[in-house]
Design brief:
This protein has 459 residues and is α+β, with helices and mostly antiparallel strands. Helices cover 53% and strands 20% of the residues. A hairpin with a 3-residue loop joins strand 13 and strand 14 (449-457). Helix 6 packs antiparallel against helix 7 (271-302) and helix 7 packs across helix 11. The chain is rod-shaped and about 160 Å long. Adenosine-5'-diphosphate binds at residues 359, 363-364, 367, 391, 393-394, 396, 404, 409-412, 416, 421-427, 450.
Length: 459
């Protein structure tokens, strides 16, 4: 990988480049604008002075006359004048003091009689030279040319360039330093996040940035990072809990089986006794297999790999077959089993729905005392097909409602284990409902029974 400049440097350099461009454009614009303005003003000034002077000149017959004072005024390094007669001959000329050669000025044709303005360079500086005809009643009797040294204006423009040339590097330097400090400061949370992410160990997911930042992009990034850590942390904790619980659930029946085997082998036994021991072990293995299958299904559901094979089914048919299967057990328990189903066609995995109802019905029968009532039913609702199991049993205190769907959660852990429940039944039902894009809810009150309802989308 090629080395890449750190972001703070890149931001700074971009900033500097932009500033430099802005300064250059601004400086050039300012300079050119100022130059045009000053030059135009100067040209105006020279032309006006020439026009005024030409209008005020004394004239004798057909020649202009220059008085000594005027000549004197225009005879130094700052200004000069030249006066031509109508035939083009020079009457007065002070251009020597301005170090301007006659060649540079060239000749003037009085017949052209047009005012003009030009720049002529001398060793003393640039001179703005205005040429105006001298007229008497529209007749040209000569030409006046005056030149003013533009050095002051040129000097001022050079000073502007100098200020920019000296000032720009300072401004740029200050901006780069400031930009670097500011971008470094602003990116500090990113450094913190990187450090934390680098140092993060799978077993120390409890660390958080806990940065108090404004609600800007970085503040939200830090918040999102902490929220993500919290989610991963919780998921890891659930995973650890699940693995621990699963190991615990598997160990209990395994050690029971171990002691059955030990007992059977502790002395010579009859064939019938061995058979009985093996049969008992077979039952335990069956329960273990079921537990492991459920765990596997839940793990698949977690990975989003629970395969559901949708087929058109009528929930009423499933309910009817279930009532059939449970009728005898309900009779033995002294519980009335009621079918509340309406025809409810839906596209769903019938096998999984049977397992869902089996779990709910097992729970209902287990928690309903003799003389009670358990109803299983279904009905179509707007865009939904709903299934329920209602019992008149013990009910569940509200504080357990959210948790009973968690894996291995049992309201009364000790008692439930005697009844063989591992606390996976409702978690399994939940996974089945989720896989169908549906929901599983509980409505229950201690002493008044429970209603578990699963609704699947039909659209
Ligand atoms: P288990 O397989 O142990 O029954 P579940 O996940 O099916 O586990 O149920 C979790 C807990 O919810 C159970 O321990 C039980 O206390 C409670 N529960 C479930 N169904 C009912 C019900 N119909 N009436 C009362 N309590 C129930």
């Amino acid at each position: 990988m090629t080395a890449i400049l750190p972001i703070r440097w890149r931001i700074t350099l971009w900033y500097a480049a932009l500033l430099l461009t802005t300064l250059a454009i601004f400086g050039a614009g300012l300079y050119l604008g100022l130059r045009t303005l000053l030059f135009d003003n100067f040209a105006e000034q020279v032309s006006q002075q020439a026009a005024l002077l030409a209008a005020g000149l004394d004239r004798a017959a057909d020649r202009p006359i220059i008085d000594a004072d005027t000549l004197d005024d225009f005879d130094d390094e700052e200004r000069f004048l030249r006066v031509y007669a109508a035939d083009g001959s020079v009457i007065a000329d002070t251009s020597a003091a301005a170090e301007i050669s006659a060649d540079a000025l060239g000749s003037v044709d009085p017949r052209a009689a047009e005012a003009r303005y030009q720049i002529i360079a001398s060793d003393l500086g640039n001179f703005g030279v205005a040429t105006v005809p001298i007229k008497v009643n529209d007749t040209v009797i000569g030409v006046l040319q005056i030149g003013l040294n533009r050095e002051d204006v040129d000097e001022m423009l050079r000073a502007v360039v100098l200020v920019f040339a000296i000032g720009a590097p300072f401004v740029l330097g200050a901006a780069v330093a400031g930009g670097y400090v500011v971008s470094r400061r602003m990116l500090r949370p990113v450094v913190t996040i990187t450090d934390l992410a680098t140092a993060l160990q799978a077993d120390a997911l409890g660390s958080r940035l806990n940065l108090t930042l404004p609600n800007d992009e970085l503040g939200r990034l830090a918040g999102a990072f902490d929220a993500m850590l919290a989610r991963i942390d919780a998921a890891f904790a659930r995973q650890r809990q699940f693995t621990g619980d699963a190991a615990h659930e598997l160990r209990t029946p395994l050690s029971l089986m171990r002691s059955q085997v030990d007992l059977a082998l502790s002395r010579e036994r009859s064939l019938a006794e061995y058979r009985e021991a093996l049969q008992s072990l077979g039952g335990d293995i069956e329960r273990l297999t079921q537990l492991v299958t459920t765990l596997l299904t839940l793990a698949r559901a977690d990975a989003g790999k629970l395969r559901i094979e949708r087929e058109p089914v009528d929930l009423a048919t499933i309910v009817a077959s279930l009532i059939d299967a449970y009728q005898q057990r309900a009779d033995e328990l002294g519980i009335t089993l009621v079918d509340e189903s309406d025809s409810t066609p839906v596209l769903a995995d019938a096998d999984l729905l049977v397992q869902l109802l089996v779990n709910l019905t097992d729970n209902a029968l287990a928690h309903t005392p003799p003389g009670g009532r358990v109803a299983i039913g279904c009905e179509p609702r707007s865009r939904q097909a709903c299934l329920w199991v209602v019992d008149s049993g013990d009910g569940i205190a509200p504080e357990h409602h959210a948790r009973i769907f968690e894996r291995f959660y049992r309201v009364d852990a000790g008692r439930a284990r005697d009844q063989g429940g591992a606390g996976l039944g409702l978690a399994f039902c939940q996974a089945i409902a989720d896989a169908h894009g549906g929901s599983l809810t509980v409505d229950s009150e201690p002493g008044r029974g429970s209603r578990f309802e699963c609704c699947l989308p039909t659209a």
